[in-house]
Design brief:
Length: 176
């Protein structure tokens, strides 16, 4: 029985033969995709047939580089911080141009009444410099936190992918 099992077992070709076969099939596929002519005699590529849809490849994302995730997250969080500061400044400027602060001051004077309300100015408490300073502080904290959370997420993904195999993605080639 052991003689029969060794006869049925296929012998794996050597590394040089496998590389040559891969290179040959890749060259055939490239010629078929580029339309530079027919495939060699006796070999027809499946991509050369006209009725077939786009090629698809199923890939598995098994590792994410934490360093590249950290750099990308840092850059995106800096951009988010700049957008936040600029948008708060624009909103605060629009509110000032619309005389919202004067309206709030008059409303407080009417509610409080007397001379106590006359000294009240909302911009002493919520001035542009205070609001922008607070916004910059929050934006700086967000940059640190978002970068750290994204990097930690990359480490956690790598550990989960090591156990479960990662995320499978199907890629398709565009048809022009």
């Amino acid at each position: 029985m052991s003689d029969r099992s060794t006869e049925e077992t296929a012998v794996r070709p050597g590394l040089g033969e496998r590389l040559q076969a891969k290179l040959s099939s890749a060259a055939d596929e490239h010629r078929a995709n580029a339309g530079s002519g027919p495939a060699p005699a006796g070999r027809t590529s499946a991509a050369a047939t006209s009725g077939r849809g786009p090629r698809r490849a199923r890939l598995r994302l098994t590792r994410v580089d934490p360093w590249s995730v950290m750099k990308t997250a840092f850059l995106l969080s800096i951009a988010f911080a700049v957008v936040t500061v600029v948008s708060v400044f624009m909103i605060w400027s629009v509110l000032g141009a619309a005389d919202v602060w004067d309206s709030i001051n008059r409303t407080v004077q009417d509610v409080v009444g007397g001379e106590d309300g006359g000294d009240f100015d909302i911009e002493n408490y919520l001035g542009t410099s205070r609001v922008l300073g607070f916004t910059m502080l929050v934006a700086a904290i967000d940059v640190v936190l978002l970068t750290a959370v994204a990097t930690l997420g990359a480490f956690l993904y790598n550990m989960a992918a090591a156990l479960l195999g990662g995320v499978e993605v199907t890629l398709a080639e565009d048809q022009n």
